[in-house]
Each structure stands twice: as C-alpha cells, then as structure tokens.
Amino acid sequence: MKRVIVLPGLLLIVMMVIHSCSPEFDASVDELDLAITSYDDTENFGDLSSFYMPDTIVYIGDDVTIQREESSTEQHILDKVRQNLLDIGWTEVSDTTNDDITSDVAIMVSVLEADINFYYTYWWDYWYWYPWDWWYPVYPGYPVYPIYPVYPVYGYTVGTLIIEMVKAKDSVTPPVEGNPIIKLPVVWTGMVNGILSGSEANLQKRLTKQIEQVFYQSEYLHKGTID
Amino acid sequence: MKKYTFIFILCLASLITRGQDEISVVINYMPSLSLGETADFTKNFSPRGVELELDRFIADDLSLGLSVGWNVFREKVVGESFEYNNYLVTGTQFRYSNIVPLNVKTKKYFSMGNQTPFIGFGLGTSYTRRTNDVGIFSIIDNQWQFHIAPEAGIQARIGTEMLASLKIKYSYSLKAGNFPAMSYLGFGIGIGIN
To answer: What is the pTM of this model?
Structure first.
C-alpha cells in the first residue's frame, strides 16, 4: 500500500523538479544591447586615414515616403560616430564643393527598425471545422464566427544602427541587366542592435556606449594608442 | 520539456514489476560542479539537478537498473566578445547547459548493518543542449553523446521500505564531432523505496 502512495509521490516530485528546472536569467533592456563588427581582412587599413561623413541617416524600410520627425537622437548618433573616428586618429574631410574625391573612405550611417510581436493562438481556434447538426440550431442572435482571430500578446521594436565604411576611391560595381544591385566596396561594418525602449536620454546613453564599443573592438582602425 | 517528461515515464514503465522486494526506486537531488569544457562554457556549481534511479536486485549484493537525470548549468557573462560567422560580437551572454544522461547501471553493495556502502557504474547516452542567449538572438547547439558515470555512496534503510542515500557521481560524455566532451561532478542526496 505504501508503494502505491510513495511511488506516485516520487514521480510527482520528479515532474515538479523538471518543470522548475528551466531557469532563465532576467535581462534588463540594456543588457540586450549588442555591438557587432566585421571587416574585409584583405584590406590594409594602414593606408586609410581620412573620411567623409554626410549629415544624414538613411532609414532602411519598405516605405520610402514615411516622413520621420527630426529627433535629437539622430544628431547624437552622427556626432558620436564622428567623434569616435576622430578619437582613434582619423581625419575628417568636409569639403564637398568640387567633384574630386579627397577622402579615403565615406561613412554611411543607416538605421533599420523591426517590430517583433508574439502571438498566442488558443485551442478553440479549431472549432470552426465542427459541423452544426440539427441538434444545435443556429440562433440568429448568435453569429457564427468561422475562426477565432489570433491576439498579439506582447511585442517590442528592435533597432539596428549600421555604420559602413566604403572606400571612396574604389570603383563601384554598377547594376547590370536583370540584376539591379549596386555593389559598394564596404571594408568595415559596425552595428549596434537593441530594443527601442525607454526615454530618449536613456536611449542616447545606451547608443553612446555601444558606438564606443564598436570602435573600441576594431583595433585595426586605430591610428594611435586608444584611451 | 515534454521530451524529458516522456523519457522519465518510459524508464519507469519498463522496470516496475510485481517483484516488490527486488526493486528499489530512488530519486536523488543532484547539485553538481561543472568540470572541463562544461566549465569553459558555464563555470559554476549548480543547485539544479535531479536523478531517478530504478534498480532491480539480481543477487543479494548486486543490482542492475536504469537511471535518468537532468542537470542545468547557467552563467551570465558580461563584457566578453566572441566570434560568430566572421562577426565579432560583444554583449551580455546568458549561457545555459542542459544535460540529460540516460544510463544502464550496475551497483555492488557492501552490507554493513543498516548502512550499505556501494559503488556503481553507468553506461549509456546523454543529450546535451547548450544555449547562448545574446541580445535578442539565441545560439543553440545540441548533441547526443556516449556517456559513462561511475559513482560511490552509501544507502541506509529507514523503516521497512524506505531508503535514504548519499553519493558522489562523476559524469562524462564523450566528444562527438565538433561538440565538446561534457563532464561534471554530482553530489546526490536521495530518498526512495525498496
């Protein structure tokens, strides 16, 4: 008799331990920020020392007609990228009054935003296929829904800041018939990825930290000793 | 989760028979210390571990049985960079190692009154899943590996049917392809019936 009680009891303890044994850390939003870099390892960065950077950020998306409100964050991003390049020994070329290319590279800054939503579908979504037979008349007061809709439970917006270093004096591969892609000689890419949440001041603080990390971990770009 | 639950039920179904005095069922709480390449990925002493043992006595001092366990190691790594597909990534890493060993095991008992020291050896397989959550991304790697597990401990009878046990168990899963060998040292505190 004791076995009948104790054995299922042990099983129950095992199941409870299993179900509690999937611990996950609680992460704050800034702990989910990433700094990612990649570079062309055939490039000699010692030959490159000057850059030109336009004062605009390109937003990557499907609808190019979206009018975005000006925000201090955009200027903050451009200022930080420029400042970090100057701090690691690069020289900025700002004269664009003539057609000659006078800088070694051009810095292109773009932003991509993506909404991520998590949906739950419930098992009664599948009731739609149950036939109504003559035992259950359909009352005109109760409309029959063919399928229950899904409901978004929660979501967030993820932003990616992309900083690309394009060799200005190298030739650009033009598009060909059947392939409209223009290939640019990108020698270095830095990306900052994170969840867009919180106040603008907090967002700018997080951006500053990750932009600095992106340049800190790219030692091949440094022209002198970094602090 | 469902996979692990099913494994436990399957192990029980195969061994519970009418030979009540010949069978012991013990559940062990198994906190463990990660070693070797397990510690390289998740270096810590983990309180999260459980093991279910079913042993059938084939002689007065020898048993044969099955065991299935689950150990979880986790570590939060801040500020370290790693390479992934030609990218250098820096961010807070949340690393998890889930190890589920399934063994056939044999135990030799040395009767000393009410306390019974024993040594045992398990041979079988283990399923390991390593997860690295970094940013909004997860890098997951999993593998079945050949597994061995020697152990030593002591069992004591409580009353006529209940058992208590203490043991140390070393688990080692062999390297498989690019997946590293996994090893850890478990400290089992168990209760069961016989």
So the answer is: 0.78
